Structure formats: C-alpha cells, structure tokens
Amino acid sequence: MQQYDAVLVPGGGLRPDGALPPFVLNRLEAAQALAGEAPIIPLSAYTIHCAPPLDAVGYPVLESGVAAQALLARGVPAARIWVEAASLDTIGNAYFARV
Fold it and tell me: How far, in Å, CA of 8 to CA of 28, rounded?
C-alpha cells in the first residue's frame, strides 16, 4: 500500500445552507480511503468569488471546517485532520497547506 505524508482535499464551495456539495463529500471519502494513517488536510476558508454562508451569530462558515466535521462524522480521528482555513484561492491553498 502506498504511504503519504498527507492527503490534501480541495474545496468546492458550500451550498447556501452551509452544506458541502456531493462532489466534495466524494473527495473526503476518497481522501479517507487513501490516507491510511496520514493526516487529511481539508483546504480553503471560502472563495472570494461568492460570499460564504453565515453562522447563527453572523460569522462566515469556513469550508474546511465543515469538511473537517464531515471527516469526524466518518470516524477520522481529530488528530489526523489538519484544517487549512487561511486561504481564499488555490495559490493560498498550496502555500498554507505547505506551511
């Protein structure tokens, strides 16, 4: 079995209600299957191309945080989920995932 240092999961936006679209859920499932014991890094706070949904107190819902919650619900241990929540674009995803 191939081993990875980490598995990055690109974002894909959130629905207006704050839910992940099905294709992002598929990405998370694939990442879990590939990762073995490696960390899984959901990428992206949100995109600048459309406003993020807001939580009950008016703060932006971060896409990578929602993805992390989905991974937790799938049984991935919290210690293996490294949330990248600083980026707003693909270049930022790469930079912040690296650092």
Answer: 9
CA distance 93 to 38: 18
pTM of the model: 0.90
What percent of the chain shows pLDDT beyond 90?
65
Q: b/e map of 23-52 (b: 16 or more CB within 10 Å)? A: ebeebbeebbeebeeeebbbbbbbbeeeeb
CA distance 21 to 43: 15
How much of the chain is in helix, strand and coil states, percent to nearest 5? 35, 10, 55
Our CA dihedral for 46, 82, 77, 54, rounded to 10 degrees, sits at -20
pLDDT digits (tens, 9 = 90+) for 49-95: 778 899 999 999 999 999 999 999 999 999 999 999 888 888 888 89
Q: Is 13 left (phi over 0), alpha (psi -120 to 50) or beta?
A: left
